[in-house]
Amino acid sequence: MYNHYFHLKGAPFSIAPDPRYLFMSERHREALAHLLYGIGSGGGFVLLTGEIGAGKTTVCRCFIEQIPENCRLAYIFNPRLSVEELLQGVCEELQIELPPAATPTGVATPGVATPGLKSYVDAINRYLLESHAQGLNNVLVIDEAQNLSAEVLEQLRLLTNLETSERKLLQIILIGQPELRSMLARPELEQLAQRVIARYHLGPLSEAETGAYVAHRLAVAGAGGAPFPPALTPLIHALAHGVPRRINLLCDRALLGAYVENSPQVTRQILKKAAAEVFAGEPAAPRRLRMPLAAGGVLAAAAVSAAAWQAMPSREPAPEPVARAAMPARAVPAAGKAVAPSTVPPVQAIEANALRELAALWGQPLAGDKPCEAALKMDLRCHQGRGGLYELRMLDRPAVVTLHDGPRTGYAVLSALDGDSVTLSAGARREKIDLATFVARFGGEFTTFWRMPRAFREELAEGARGPDVDWLAARLAQLDGAPAPRPGSALDAGTRKWLERFQAAQNLKADGLAGPRTYMRLNQLSGVPEPRLLAHAAADKGQ
User: Fold this and answer.
1) For a pLDDT cut of 90, what percent of the chain falls above it?
2) pLDDT at 30
3) SS3 of 200, please?
4) Cα separations in angstroms, 368 against 3, 159, 355, 382
5) What is the spatial distance between Cα 310 and Cα 481, in angstroms, rounded to a whole number?
6) Which pLDDT belongs to residue 536?
7) What is the pLDDT averaged over residues 334-346?
8) Which of 10, 62, 194, 274 is deepest in the core (most CB within 10 A)?
9) Distances (CA, A) of 13 to 10, 135, 163, 273
10) What SS3 class is residue 141?
11) Secondary structure percentages of the chain, helix, strand, coil, to 5
C-alpha cells in the first residue's frame, strides 16, 4: 500500500525470509562461523540459541548454502515428534533405505512388520558407515529444538555413539530458543551436554546495527529518500529491543502510518503509535528480561541481569551498591536518569575485581589491575574455558563466569553449583538463584585458577627432567598405586603412555600432553588443596 508512496520496488520490512534482504550483523557472522566450525571439528553436537526473531533461521539458511560438497544434510523443522517419528524423518531426509519388511507404507499390511525403533537405528548406523567409507559426512539440523523431549534428545545422543578413531559419523546441530540451553543444563542430560563442541547465543542487534539494518533493507527496496531519519535509530532500537523481526514489524507499521498521515518521513509520534499498535498488550520489557529471580533477588538482578535491570524503562533502578558491582562499561539510563560515566567502572576493572574475589577462595590476596599476572607469583594460573556447565562440573572449582544481556557483559563469582541452582557473588553480596535463570545469561565462558607444580613449563618435551616432571610422574604413580620414579628421571615414552591412559579414563583429550585440565584433574584426585564447586553446593544444601 505504501510502496508507491515511498517509491519502493518491494516491501522492505516483510517478515518473509527473502534472501535479497539478508543482513548479516557481526553477531550473525559469528554464529555462522560457529556452525561451520562445528561440521569440520569431528562430529558431536553444535548449539545455536537466540530469542524469537533474532535471526536463527537466517543463519541456518546461510549455513546450509555453505556446507561442503561432501556433506549430506538432513533438516528437521518440526521436532514435536516421538523418537520413532524423528528417526523416520531422518531416514526420509537422508534417503536411507529401510529393509523391505520395515518399509513404511502408511497402510497396515497383514503379515508385514511395521517399522520399529531398532529398524530405524540399524538403518541409520549402516548408512553412516557406508557414507564414511565413501568419504562423506552427514549433518542433521534440528530447528526449534527447544521442543524436543528428553527421550528424543537421549536418542540423538545415542546416534552420535557411532564413531571412528578420528571423528563421530553424525554431526547434529540444535537450533532453538534460550530454553534449549536450560534443558541441556539438566543433570540428566549431562552426557549430551558434554558432546556439545561449539555453542553460540545469538543476541539482539546493537543500536548501530539496528540503523544499518533499517538502511540496508530500504536500500534493497530502492528507497530514494530516507523515510526513517537517522535520529530515529535509538528509538527504533529501544522499541524493538534490537530483534530483527520486531524491527520489521515496527518499521512496516510505521511506514503505513506515514502513508496514512501523508507524511514524507516517519516521525517520533508515528513510530510510537506504530509500536503501540504492533506490540499492544506486551509487557514493557522484552521477553529476555522477564527472567524469574530468586526470592529477594538483589544479587540475581546484579549478577545475572544487571544490564537488563538498568536498561528497563520506567522501572526502579537497582540498589546503588549492586548496580556498581556488575554494571557494564558504558553509562546506562536508569529510570529515565543518565548515569554519570565516572560512576561506571570499566568492564576490565569489574572482571579484575571478580578475579580478586575468586583468588580469595584459594587464600591468595591479589593486588593490582592484572590479577592473572599477579597470580603467577602465588603459583596460581588462570584458565579460561568455554565449555559451559559441563566443563565447570567436571573441573569442580569456583570460577568467574561471564554473563550476557544482549550487547552488555557482566561478571560474577560462581562459588557453588548443584542440580537446580547456582550460588553467585558480586562484591559483598552472595545469593542462590535457579539454574534456568543463570543459564539464560551464561554464554559458557569462565575463568578459574589452578595450582601449578613447582618450575611448571608449558610443554614437556621427550627426555625433559625437572621438578615438574617429578611432580607429574609422582601423581600418576600415586593414582595408579605404583611406585614413583626416582626424582630427576626423564620424561620417557612409558610416562607419556601412563599419562594418556589417565587422560582417557578422565574423559580428557588423550594426547599425552599435560595441559591445564590434566593438571586440574590430577590436583583434584591427588588431594592438592583447592576450593571445590560441587562440594560447596553440597555444604549449602546441608545448612
Assistant:
1) 16
2) 79
3) strand
4) 60, 50, 11, 15
5) 56
6) 54
7) 39
8) 274
9) 9, 43, 45, 17
10) strand
11) 45, 15, 40
